[in-house]
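Summary for the funding panel

The consortium committed to producing paired sequence-structure records for every protein in the target list. Below we show the first two records in order, beginning with the earlier of the two.
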Amino acid sequence: MARKKSNRYTGVYFQELQNGDKSYYITYKENKKDVWKKIGKHSEGIREVFCHQKRNEIISKIRLGEDLPYVAAKKASQTFLDIAKQFYDY
């Protein structure tokens, strides 16, 4: 199913799932790239208003140069080469 744009809030999208639930997403720009983040499902208590508030929070923190909230923080990942180097050093 395709994502549908919220009629009321900018940058908020939802996708209807096969079980009748809705999954909510937000979009924003970071370093001139579009970023899509899944916020949560309707059954988990997530609504369009909450997604709009999270998007505004993320955008303002990007603009001010502060640390991003947990929803937008990127996870640090290790490459296979890093793990192999740690193994051989051990």
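The next record, for a separate protein in the list, is shown here:
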Amino acid sequence: MSGKAQIKHFTDSEFEKEIKNGVVLVDFHANWCGPCRTLAPILEQVAKDMEGKVTIGKIDIDNEEKTAAHFQITSVPTMILFKNGKEVNRRIGLLSADAVKEFIKSAQ
């Protein structure tokens, strides 16, 4: 896997910089969340399939509480789609790889 296709792990301190350019899908997750663990390999596959078109990142709501609170995350997994730093869409719950790809395409 090349560097671009890897899923990034965001922190509160770097979050704004990471979502500033292009299309970024952020998975708000928690280690204790079963559906979040199921979603992880799906997002890895989507990152490979859509390399160069989207950045996929994860943020742990238990460790990065400031960002989770800012976006009012009350359920996990929650995926928020950003385009050039602005939220354009969000989905709550587990999605298939095809559904994730369609979700990303909605911002392109």
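Regarding this second record: Residues 34-49 form the longest helix (16 residues). The chain has a mean pLDDT of 94.
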